[in-house]
Each structure stands twice: as C-alpha cells, then as structure tokens.
C-alpha cells in the first residue's frame, strides 16, 4: 500500500503539470470576451474593486488586521491536511452564506460582497499557513499568501508567471520587494477582477443573485483550498 505522502507527491506532480500548461487558444480568446464583460459594469463597481484589493493587499503586506494561529509543528502531513480540509469546509460555508445574503440584495449589496469575500479568503490562507507550520509574522510568508491567491484567481498566462516564481521560492524570495509600494497590487487587482467579473455580474441580477452567490463563493473557496494545499506541499515535500 502506498503511504499518504507518496500519494500526495503524485497528486502534486499532476497539479504542477497543470500549472505549467500554457494558455489554450480558447483561454487566450476569452480575454477579449472578458474586456467586453468588464465594460458592462458601472464605474462604482470598479471603484469598489480597486479600493478593496488595495486595502486587503496593504493589510496583508503590513501584517495588520489578521490574527493567525501559531504555526503547528511536529504533525504528520496527513493530519495537517485533514485540518486544512476541515477549515476549508467551514470557510466555504461562511462564504456561501455571505454570498447568499449579498446576492439577494441586488447591485448595492453585491458590491459589499467583494471586500467581505476577500477578507474570508485571506483569513483562510493565514490559517492554512499556520497548519502547515509557517509563520505569517514574516513579511516573506505573507507575500507567499498573496502569490497563492493570484495562483488561484488569475488568467492562465498570469498563473504561469506566478507559478514559476513559486516553484523556486527560496531563490526568488531574495529578490522580493522590501517596500509596500513595490508590490504590483494593480496587476493583482486586474487579474482578480477579470477572473470574477462574469460570475459577479450574474450575482447582481434580481431573483437568481442569491443562488449564484452561494454557488460561486462556495466554489471559489474550494478552489482556494486546493491551490493552497498544493502550494504548501511544494515546500514541505522538498
């Protein structure tokens, strides 16, 4: 019988191959469609997204606003990942409830979903880091969280760029920005917004908004859980 770690290594290699794949023709063509969707949103929408992204990245980079558990040491990988999955289910439920509430409220309420959902996702990543034994009081570790976030919610082309950095994190970390203004939060904002625009447009629709909010937010947290687990597997299984 294969050990848990050996099974995880195989799963990790499959995931890494997927991260390295270049954008398909359909994925490249979808960028044009995305720009069309983006133009359908009022200016207020773009203001809220830009402000929320800048605020959350500033909070993460400065290490304020999120309180994480202490890093766990001495646990086998299987137990760590059981805890991560359990936390993922809890946060996915929280995100789904929040999505239902804001989706039911129409356009104005849906705008509130962005900062709330961002906060839920980032808090979850802080928790995951601690479970895998990493200390988010370190600036570099908090930057790693932002890279995980981008890996989960970006276009395929941007995923390729981010993943290349994360694969050689120890080497890359020495060249990371040391000042807040050096972090390209605008690119971060653009990728995240483009990733979510179509789903959020549907969430703002009357009647179906609540159902869409439940489905989308739950799915986004599941995607983040998978991405975070594999991102930390790359480091703990070296």
Q: Say how many strands there are.
A: 0
CA gyration radius, whole angstroms = 18 Å
Biggest pleated-sheet summary = none
Question: Which percent band covers the strand fraction?
Answer: under 5%
- Secondary-structure-based class equals mainly alpha
Report the average pLDDT across residues.
80
Contiguous runs where pLDDT drops below 50 for at least 5 residues: none
Query: What is the straight-line distance between the termini?
Result: 22 Å
Instruction: Count up the helices.
Output: 10
Shape: globular
Please write the string of helix (H) and strand (E) elements.
HHHHHHHHHH
Q: What portion of residues is helical?
A: over 70%
Can you walk through the features of this model?
- It is a single chain.
- Helix 3 runs parallel beside helix 5, helix 3 (43-62) runs antiparallel to helix 6 (139-152) and helix 6 packs across helix 10 (209-236).
- This protein has a domain at 76-238.
- 76% of the residues lie in helices and 0% in strands.
- It has 238 residues and is mostly helical.
- It contains ten helices and no strands.
Ordered list of secondary-structure elements with their pairings:
Blueprint: H1 4-20, H2 25-38, H3 43-62, H4 77-103, H5 106-131, H6 139-152, H7 156-167, H8 169-172, H9 185-203, H10 209-236
Concise account of the structure shown:
With 238 residues, the protein is an all-alpha fold.
């Amino acid at each position: 019988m294969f050990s848990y770690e050996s099974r995880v290594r195989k799963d990790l290699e499959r995931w890494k191959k997927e991260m390295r794949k270049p954008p398909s023709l359909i994925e490249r063509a979808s960028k044009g469609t995305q720009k069309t969707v983006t133009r359908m949103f009022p200016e207020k929408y773009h203001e809220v997204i830009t402000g929320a992204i800048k605020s959350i990245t500033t909070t993460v980079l400065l290490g304020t606003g999120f309180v994480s558990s202490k890093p766990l040491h001495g646990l086998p990988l299987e137990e760590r990942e059981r805890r991560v999955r359990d936390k993922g289910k809890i946060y996915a439920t929280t995100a789904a409830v929040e999505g239902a509430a804001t989706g039911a409220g129409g356009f104005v309420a849906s705008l509130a979903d962005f900062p709330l959902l961002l906060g839920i996702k980032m808090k979850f990543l802080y928790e995951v880091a601690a479970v895998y034994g990493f200390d988010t009081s370190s600036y570099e570790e908090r930057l790693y969280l932002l890279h995980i976030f981008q890996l989960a919610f970006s276009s395929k082309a941007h995923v390729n760029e981010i993943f290349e950095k994360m694969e050689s994190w120890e080497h890359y970390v020495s060249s990371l920005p040391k000042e807040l203004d050096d972090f390209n939060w605008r690119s971060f904002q653009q990728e995240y917004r483009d990733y979510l625009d179509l789903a959020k447009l549907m969430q703002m629709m009357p009647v179906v908004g609540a159902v869409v909010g439940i489905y989308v937010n739950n799915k986004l947290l599941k995607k983040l859980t998978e991405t975070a687990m594999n991102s930390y597997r790359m480091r703990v299984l070296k």
